[in-house]
Amino acid sequence: MRWIKKLGLFVLTLWAAVTVNFILPRLMPGSPADAAIAKLSQSGPVSNATKKAIEAQLGVPKGSLIAQYGEYLHQVVTLHFGVSYTFYPESVSSLIAGALPYTLILVGVVTVIAFVGGTLLGVLAAWKRGTWVEALPTLGGSFMSAFPYFWTALLLLFFLGYVAHAFPTSGAAGVTDTPAFTGPYVTDVLYHAVLPALTILITSLGGWILGMRNTMINTLGDDYVTFAEANGLKSRTVAVRYAARNAILPNLTSFGLALGGVVGGSLLVESVFGYPGIGYLLLKAVTNQDYPLMQALFLMITVSVLVANFLVDLLYGVLDPRTRK
User: Fold this and answer.
1) For the chain, how many structural domains are there in total?
2) How confident is the model over 196-247, as pLDDT tens digits?
3) d(C-alpha 310, C-alpha 12), whole Å
4) Are 239 and 116 in the same domain?
5) How far is CA 27 from CA 30, 86, 187, 291, in A?
6) What is the pLDDT, as a whole number, of residue 217?
7) pLDDT at residue 258 in the model
8) Average pLDDT over the chain, rounded to whole?
9) Where does the chain cross the membrane (predicted)?
10) CA-to-CA distance for 43 and 223, rounded, in angstroms?
11) Is 146 found in the same domain as 60?
12) Of the candidates 30, 50, 78, which is a domain's last residue?
């Protein structure tokens, strides 16, 4: 019964997210067709036939909202979101398929590394509280968390890119490279991802460290930890199996949100480095009022966050049996 309730709530939330995703772009003033017509009108009046031709070419939604909603649901089920207004005549599906691997390589891998590394350092800092082992990651984490994404990105871009010429300053690969799953191309992609990855790692690592340390310190004062220590268990066993296992739950919730947001990319970082990921694609879609592309990206981001949180909710029951009730 518990699983059925969780699944039902997930489906209901998913439907609500899909519906909101349909409504929001239509609340925005104007349309891509209006922008194209405005540019043409600068050189002279635009006839009604020209307006209709532009709307037909861009595939501007027609009919009542109910009819558009039905067509939209059909697109969601079939994963066919039409043609992008911004990158016409490329389809939305092909654009997302081309940008998603870069985002998963960059943001996904770095998010997992930052979570694992920050959590372990937080556990170590809490267990060794009062020593230099605690002071170093705590102060370092506080210092790194104070820098916003775009500022860190600009610093790395200037010093390591333009001054030292150690890493590329933009793009995901060389201009003359042909995308292929080969050693040289993969190496080049990883080389171009170093600066964006460092930006995300530096700015996010401190949050994981401080969050885990603070929760771990509170957990260490609980009775079951004192009882485990009184029974003569090894310090590593008490720290990992008793204190850290319960202290990790808040961090795990944040990790679920961060992991779901991976699909959305890191908009600021990808914009600064000109990295062709989902975040950069989303910026282009919003700037150009590209309804099909916006809806597909928002839907993908929303579904990924919902799925990640659903899995984390299930994992809670494994780590902490008390949550099963």
Assistant:
1) 2
2) 888 888 888 888 888 888 888 888 777 777 777 777 777 777 777 777 777 8
3) 13
4) yes
5) 9, 19, 44, 11
6) 82
7) 79
8) 78
9) 99-127, 148-169, 189-210, 255-276, 296-319
10) 78
11) no
12) 78
In this structure, the answer to whether residues 164 and 263 fall within a common structural domain is yes
Same domain for 199 and 70? no
* pLDDT of 321 above 70: no
Contact 242, 224 (CB under 8 A): yes
CATH number of domain containing 203: 1.10.3720.10
Q: How far apart are CA 14 and CA 40, in angstroms?
A: 41
Q: Is residue 152 part of a domain?
A: yes
Average pLDDT value for residue range 23-37: 69
Q: Is 274 left (phi over 0), alpha (psi -120 to 50) or beta?
A: left
Do 102 and 162 share a domain, yes or no? yes
Whether 86 is covered by a domain: the verdict is no
3-state secondary structure of 163: helix
Query: Would you say 22 and 295 are in contact if contact means Cβ atoms under 8 Å apart?
Result: yes
- Going from the C-alpha of 134 to that of each of 14, 23, 140, 208, 246, the distances in angstroms are 42, 49, 10, 14, 20
pLDDT digits (tens, 9 = 90+) for 80-113: 887 787 777 788 888 888 888 888 888 888 888 8
Domain that holds residue 27: 2-78
Task: In whole angstroms, give the CA distance from residue 312 to residue 319.
Answer: 10
The DSSP result for 112-132, as a single string, is: HHHHHHHHHHHHHHHHTTTSH
